[in-house]
Every structure is written in structure tokens, then in C-alpha cells.
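Researcher: Let's do a round of design. I'm pasting the C-alpha cells now; please hold your answer until I've finished.
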């Protein structure tokens, strides 16, 4: 959830760190801070509640003399209010050791109590503050800062990533991780940039080293040493190349990343299918699965685990895989899956879906089945992420960096990839196989046709922007889309929106309906359209306003709905992608009309790396 950046090299370190924090701010933005060592070897910390831009003048003023080493942090509060006292970096009592931290130290209270007993004082409510003081304690005991850091890391339990700076060794940054991402960018002239997310690195270098769990990196100018701090064994740094495209990650002419990422949908579908759909030959090529073809023959069940939007994409995948491949699928919220005691055989696949590849609950689900002997697959967007590295095989989404907290293009990519996986597992035997391959090639154009209705969707959004409640209803494969549509609206407009299976209306939700309670009804052409139209009639009979998503040419819907958004004709299996796009635009325009922070909605963060 938080963002960590560190730099060591010839550039003005605080400038690099501040720029990096700005690039990561979408991950968490309650408070921000930097620590640096000035040329006269004094350690300085500048931190406060609020956004990165508010810190810039303060840092510039303090770092005028120049500095070549710095660490910084943007915070999403877990322990303690978002204020300057709790902002990172945190220091030891002697103010010689500075630490930024992402994750949760589960045994911090016990460590804090022990340190207080031997005379240490604490000033924040954070778990983080135990780290610099524990390092200080071990340093005074061992006389070695590196050993002190190793001893401290071995005392901590929980999931964490840390960067450490000290006036005791003013030319070194220490960094370590346990179940929370850290990556080191290798710069041209022997400088290094450390971050919890490659987005902070890619404009400096594409050469990166992803740290693994229990790695401790000792970073000096032109010299990087990595070891396993638990096993105390040296490791060779493995340099990889980031496949991020800087252009894709920049805002361009858009007012914010969410709108940019919504309008990327046609390209997103294209890149998710590129080289994978050979419609004329009737072939689906998924290189990421070919290596496990032999094992796929024995699969008799798939459990999909994910969170939030990725969970709803998984629910769409359930319909697709069951219908096209005839394999039973169960979708579970990763946070629930961890604690279930369900039987898990070797012929079951665990399929994790994640945009960031760093979601703690989804990671924990993969860890849970590590010794079950089952296949672990991933549908991930962030290449090289922890989830991607933990799975046996998978299919990347290739949607490029998604910066807005509200996930849009990732959902489009995930559902596209899940359609490909369902077709791949069907071995071409389903009656709609060839039609679907052709439809996937036409889908980018159809997505563009939806985007071309942006002004019409905006008009409707302005009409309903002051609603305080919203219901989204859909049936079969559009039911998870109703859930996702409701999530989009609630997370960026703060309107309470609920998704429901349309068939459930009579079992309770109908009681909510009145003239102030609008319903977004997904009523595109399908085998269950008549049933959905009946639900719409029931709502209308109670005076409930209706916004309907319908298939171009459906005239029956007009007398029933107050507003209709028409989607291009497409197969039932590909309707979720077009429906989601229309609902993303609707949610966007409602939030925009309310003047809210579209890319960074309150209380949320982009990557939930704490459980
Ligand atoms: C979606 O708009 C939210 N930002 C959130 O629900 C997100 O989908 C969820 O946290 C899962 O993230 P992941 O795909 O990176 O694992």
C-alpha cells in the first residue's frame, strides 16, 4: 500500500526520490517523507501529512547543499493516524538511523515494550518505529551496523519491505523484504534506485533486480551485495529488463489516469490477444500454458482466488470456463480462501488473478497451497511481480501500468485473458469456438463504439450524480459485471452502490426501490433477456428509475427504462467486456461531476500489500 523509494548516485538524491514518490503516490497518499545525508554528513528528515507536492519546497530548502543518498516514503496508514508524527521515515532516539517501511510488523508491540524497558522512547503510533531503535540496540551491542540490521530483520515477524539509511555509514542504503515487493534499478553511471514498485524506476533505467523474500541488499555507489538474511548466504543479483513502456505510463492529454486507462480499452484487448488468437487457423496460442499441457489433461477443478475487481473478473471467468471447457470452477475471495478448510486435490488448479501481482491476500492464498502439489497459475498484469514469480505458469495481461486506484483496463484485460484460457482449455471442441475467435478480433472496434458514446453516458451520469444509493442488476455472465459496476461507482464517487443477481430482486432488494433509488440494469440480448425485462418491469412498477444497458436494435427496452445505453451486438461471452466499459465511463463521469479525486479516491490505495 505504501511507496518506498531510495537513491544513491551522482544526481541530487532528494530530487530523484521525490519524483519517484510522486510516481508511486497512487499506492498510498496519507503522508509523505524523505531522509537524506547532506554533504556535511548530517542526517536530515523532512516529513508531513499530505501529498508529495506539499513536501517539495521543504526538502529543496533543507537539501540546498546537495546530497547523493536519500530514502523516501508515501504512506497508507495501517497503524496510527495519517499525520506528520506517524509519517515515515522513522528514526532511532539518537537520530542516526532512518527507516521507511511497507507492510505490517506483527510483533511490534512486544518489541516496543522490550525496548522501552531498556530505555528507548517512542513518539509515534506506528509499528515501524521499533525498527530503527532495534537496529540501534543491536549496533551498540555488536559494533556492526550490517550485523545489527540482520539481527533486527530476524527478530521481525509479518510482511514488510524496508529501506534503511544511517549517518553511521553515510554511503550505504540497506534494503530488505519479506512478502512485500522491492526492486533495485541499476543506473548507467553506477547509481542505484530502489523502489517498492517499478513505476518509480522506469524513467531512470529498465535494468532491475527484483529482491526475493529474505533478501538483504547492501547498496553502495557502484557496488551491490545481496544475501539471504535468514540463511546468511550470499546471492548473485539477477538483472532483468522491465518491459514497461514509459509512454504508456504517462498521462498524455488526459485529465487523469482513470480516463486514460478506460480509453485504452481497444488497445488493451488487442495486446491481450496479440499473437494468441489465430482466428483463420482456429488456434489459441498461450505460451505461458504450453509448458504444463501434460498436467492440464488431468485437471478436474479450478479454484480462482482474487480480490476486488480481479475477483469479479474471476467470476466472469467461471462462467466462461465452465461453459466453454466443461471444467467445474469455484471463485473465492482470497481473504476468505486462506481460512477455509476445503479439500484440495492434485487435480485442482489454483488460479490467482491480480493486476498488481502484489495483493497480500492473493499471495497468501498461493502460499497456502504451496505444499498441496497442485498447479498454481496466474493471470497477472505486472510482470515480474511477486504473484507472477510464485506461480508455476500463467498468462500475462500485457495491459501496461495501471495507475488509477480504480481498476479499469486491467478488468478488460483479465476478462479477455480468461476468455482465451477458457477457449484454450476447450481444445476447440465447443460449438462457439470459431465464432468466439472471430469475435475477439472484432472486439477492439466494438469497444471503441462504446467509448464513442462517452458524451451520452456523461449526460446520463449528470442526471443521476446526486443519487445516494444505486442498484446494479444482471443475470448469468452479466451478474459479476453488475457487481463490478457497483464497485466502480462506490469506490470513486462514494455513492453506496450494490450489485445483485437480477433474479434475486423479489427475494428482498425490491423493498429498497422507490423514485430516489435508481437501478442500473444489464439487459443485453441473451437467453435470459426476457427474465431481466420482467425484473425491470417490477422495478418500474415501484417507481424506481432505470438505466438499462441494451443491445443495439432492442426497441422493447425503451418504454421500460428511463435511459438506455446501447452496446454493439456481440456474443454473450464477450458482452461483459463492453458492459464493463460503459459502466466504467458512467462511474467516472459521476465522480468527475462531484469534483472528487478520480485517481486517488479517499481511504484506498492501488495495491493492497497488507492483509
Ligand atoms: C478495483 O478498482 C480496486 N482498486 C481493488 O478492488 C483491486 O481490484 C483489488 O485490490 C485487487 O488488486 P489486484 O488486482 O492488484 O490484486
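Researcher: That's everything. Go ahead.
Model: Designed sequence:
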Amino acid at each position: 500500500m505504501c511507496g518506498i523509494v531510495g537513491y544513491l548516485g551522482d544526481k541530487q538524491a532528494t530530487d530523484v526520490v521525490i519524483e519517484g514518490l510522486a510516481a508511486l503516490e497512487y499506492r498510498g497518499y496519507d503522508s509523505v517523507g524523505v531522509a537524506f545525508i547532506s554533504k556535511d554528513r548530517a542526517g536530515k528528515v523532512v516529513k508531513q501529512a499530505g501529498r508529495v507536492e506539499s513536501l517539495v519546497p521543504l526538502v529543496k530548502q533543507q537539501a540546498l547543499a546537495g546530497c547523493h543518498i536519500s530514502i523516501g516514503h508515501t504512506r497508507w496508514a495501517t497503524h496510527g493516524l495519517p499525520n506528520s508524527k506517524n509519517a515515515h521515515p522513522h528514526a532511532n532516539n539518537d537520530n542516526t538511523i532512518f527507516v521507511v517501511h511497507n507492510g505490517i510488523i506483527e510483533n511490534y508491540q512486544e518489541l516496543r515494550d522490550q525496548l522501552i524497558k531498556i530505555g528507548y522512547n517512542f513518539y509515534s503510533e506506528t509499528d515501524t518505529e521499533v525498527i530503527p531503535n532495534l537496529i540501534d540496540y543491536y549496533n551498540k551491542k555488536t559494533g556492526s551496523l550490517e550485523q545489527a540490521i540482520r539481527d533486527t530483520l530476524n527478530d521481525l515477524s509479518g510482511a514488510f519491505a524496508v529501506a534503511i539509511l544511517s549517518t553511521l555509514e553515510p554511503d550505504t542504503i540497506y534494503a530488505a523484504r519479506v512478502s512485500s515487493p522491492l526492486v533495485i534499478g541499476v543506473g548507467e553511471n553506477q547509481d542505484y534506485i530502489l523502489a517498492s514498485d517499478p513505476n518509480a524506476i522506469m524513467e531512470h533505467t529498465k535494468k532491475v533486480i527484483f529482491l526475493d523474500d529474505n533478501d538483504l541488499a547492501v547498496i553502495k555507489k557502484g557496488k551491490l551485495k545481496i544475501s539471504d538474511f535468514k540463511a546468511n548466504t550470499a546471492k548473485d543479483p539477477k538483472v532483468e529488463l522491465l518491459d514497461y513502456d514509459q509512454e504508456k505510463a504517462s498521462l498524455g492529454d488526459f485529465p487523469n489516469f482513470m480516463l486514460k486507462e478506460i480509453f485504452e480499452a481497444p488497445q488493451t484487448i488487442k495486446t491481450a490477444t496479440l499473437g494468441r488468437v489465430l482466428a483463420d487457423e482456429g488456434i489459441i496460442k498461450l505460451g505461458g500454458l504450453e509448458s504444463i499441457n501434460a498436467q492440464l489433461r488431468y485437471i478436474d477443478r479450478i479454484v480462482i482466488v482474487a480480490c476486488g475487481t480481479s475477483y469479479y473478473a474471476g467470476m466472469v471467468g467461471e462462467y466462461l470456463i465452465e461453459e466453454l471447457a466443461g471444467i467445474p470452477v469455484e471463485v473465492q475471495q482470497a481473504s476468505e480462501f486462506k481460512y477455509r478448510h476445503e479439500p484440495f486435490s492434485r487435480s485442482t488448479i489454483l488460479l490467482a488473478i491480480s493486476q498488481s501481482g502484489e495483493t497480500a491476500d492473493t499471495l497468501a492464498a498461493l502460499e497456502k497451497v504451496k505444499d498441496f502439489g497442485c498447479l498454481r497459475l496466474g493471470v497477472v498484469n505486472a510482470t515480474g511481480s511477486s504473484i507472477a514469480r510464485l506461480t508455476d505458469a500463467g498468462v500475462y495481461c500485457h495491459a501496461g501500468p495501471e495507475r488509477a486506484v480504480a481498476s479499469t483496463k486491467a478488468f478488460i484485460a483479465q476478462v479477455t485473458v480468461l476468455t482465451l484460457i477458457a477457449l484454450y482449455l476447450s481444445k476447440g471442441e465447443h460449438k462457439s469456438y470459431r465464432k468466439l475467435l472471430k469475435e475477439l478480433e472484432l472486439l477492439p472496434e466494438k469497444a471503441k463504439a462504446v467509448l464513442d458514446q462517452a458524451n451520452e453516458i456523461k449526460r446520463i451520469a449528470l442526471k443521476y450524480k446526486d443519487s445516494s444509493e444505486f442498484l446494479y442488476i444482471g443475470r448469468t455472465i452479466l451478474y459479476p459485471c453488475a457487481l463490478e459496476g457497483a464497485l466502480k461507482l462506490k469506490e470513486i464517487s462514494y455513492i453506496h452502490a450494490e450489485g445483485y443477481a437480477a433474479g434475486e430482486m423479489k427475494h428482498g432488494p425490491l423493498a429498497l426501490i422507490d423514485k430516489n433509488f435508481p437501478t442500473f440494469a444489464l439487459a443485453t440480448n441473451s437467453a435470459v433477456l426476457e427474465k431481466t425485462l420482467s425484473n425491470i418491469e417490477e422495478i418500474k412498477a415501484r417507481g424506481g428509475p432505470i438505466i438499462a444497458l441494451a443491445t443495439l436494435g432492442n426497441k422493447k427496452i425503451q418504454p421500460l427504462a428511463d435511459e438506455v445505453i446501447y452496446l454493439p451486438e456481440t456474443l454473450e461471452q464477450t458482452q461483459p467486456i463492453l458492459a464493463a466499459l460503459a459502466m466504467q465511463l458512467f462511474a467516472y463521469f459521476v465522480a468527475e461531476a462531484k469534483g472528487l479525486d478520480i485517481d486517488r479516491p479517499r481511504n484506498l490505495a492501488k495495491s493492497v500489500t497488507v492483509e
